[in-house]
Write a structure and sequence with these properties.
- Helix content is 32%, strand content 15%.
- By secondary structure, it is α/β, with parallel strands linked by helices.
- The protein folds into 2 domains: 1-36, no CATH class; 107-261, 3-Layer(aba) Sandwich (Uracil-DNA Glycosylase, subunit E).
- A hairpin with a 3-residue loop joins strand 5 (218-221) and strand 6 (225-230).
- Helix 5 packs across helix 6 (201-207).
- It is rod-shaped, with a radius of gyration of 46 Å.
- It starts with a helix and ends with a helix.
Length: 262
């Protein structure tokens, strides 16, 4: 049911100036009884059938003055919504853009020392090298070809990333790079080296801040000095044709550690 103020607001929005209810409305202002009385019957025979005779003017009943009420504007639905009973769309602010969280990188690195060189090697299986591992046997062959001891000394435990399975600690790529570089720098402070071998893409990426395009190239890393970027041992076994490029790069850099050893 509509109260009087809301009913008048709807009539005003529909531009209805005068109106007369058929029955008494609930919550409406009291109506005068004479407005609800039936109109008197008119005898049609009395009226002259002359077109020029004007119809009698019936004075409109006087309207009791009422207090002026504030006009309430009611929004009208659009034509499309009235035809299809569609609900008008609400204008809302665009949803905030969600930045996808970067998953932490996953890798395992082992630091070794062979003569005057340090080797930061990607562990293909994630576990420490065993004497009969094909990857470790390939590494020993590379050290012999470089004129270095083929029994490298293992330095510390493998660096496995991420450090924690759960927790709020930042373990993204930048945190991994800072950790790996800090780990290698601490070992260089204990004993410097002539050349740092970065074997495997994780070593090149997080210690040398480079990518696969830098394989077989010499890098100058701030704080770590001269480094040599190499493909991973697993990749060299899967793609033997890469060994030729490694050998050519080794011949150019061999004078660094051989001169010092001599």
């Amino acid at each position: 049911m509509l109260n009087e103020s809301r009913r008048r607001a709807y009539l005003t929005s529909m531009q209805v100036v005068s109106w007369l209810p058929r029955t008494e409305l609930p919550f409406a202002a009291p109506s005068r009884p004479e407005l609800l009385a039936p109109l008197p019957a008119v005898d049609i025979s009395v009226v002259a059938p002359v077109a020029t005779v004007a119809a009698p003017v019936v004075d409109a009943p006087a309207v009791r003055p009422t207090a002026e009420r504030p006009k309430v504007e009611v929004p009208r639905p659009s034509l499309a919504s009235t035809r299809t009973n569609a609900v008008p769309e609400e204008v809302s602010a665009p949803p905030p853009v969600k930045v996808a969280a970067v998953p932490p990188p996953r890798f395992a690195l082992q630091l070794l020392r062979a003569g005057r060189c340090l080797l930061l090697v990607e562990l293909p299986t994630g576990e420490s090298f065993q004497s009969r591992d094909p990857a470790y046997i390939l590494l020993k062959d590379m050290l012999r070809a470089a004129g270095l001891p083929d029994a490298p000394q293992i330095i510390g435990e493998p660096v496995r990333w991420p450090l924690l399975v759960r927790g709020q600690l930042d373990q993204g790529p930048e945190a991994a790079r800072d950790f790996v570089q800090g780990f290698v720098l601490a070992r260089l402070e204990d004993e410097p080296c002539a050349c740092l071998w970065l074997i495997g893409l994780p070593s090149v990426r997080f210690a040398g801040e480079a990518d696969a395009e830098s394989f077989n190239r010499e890098l100058q890393i701030e704080g770590l000095g001269s480094a040599w970027a190499l493909p991973g041992l697993e990749l060299l076994m899967d793609e033997p044709q890469r060994k030729g490029d490694v050998w050519q790069a080794m011949r150019r850099l061999m004078t660094r550690w051989k001169t010092l050893d001599e």
